[in-house]
Design brief:
alpha+beta; Alpha-Beta Plaits; 37% helix; 33% strand; globular
Length: 95
């Protein structure tokens, strides 16, 4: 299963938020064996950046671990309008 988490970030929050996200992503990669990425949409829309956290190759119990990591890191406060998670799986696994 692959997790894609996107949210809006104010540009003035980037310096404080980026190290926190990278730190908890590294912890999740080490403890759950997921591949990680942190991306952002080019430019800004309505004065906000759109960020996306990517976690690929996650097990079924990863959602709870991700939620706990978010709570412990305090990053949810930086996500204007909340965090939105989409789940995808390989096409072959869906058949």
């Amino acid at each position: 299963m692959d997790f894609y988490v996107y949210y809006k970030v104010a540009p003035d929050a980037v310096a404080a938020l980026a190290p926190r996200v990278r730190a908890f992503q590294q912890q999740l990669a080490a403890s759950h064996g997921v591949a990680i990425a942190l991306k952002r949409r080019p430019g800004e829309q309505n004065g906000m950046q759109t960020w996306m956290e990517v976690y690929t190759g996650a097990a079924a119990d990863f959602a709870a671990a991700l939620e706990l990591a978010v709570q412990q890191s305090g990053i949810a406060a930086f996500a204007t309008g909340g965090r939105h998670t989409e789940l995808f799986m390989d096409l072959e696994a869906c058949a």
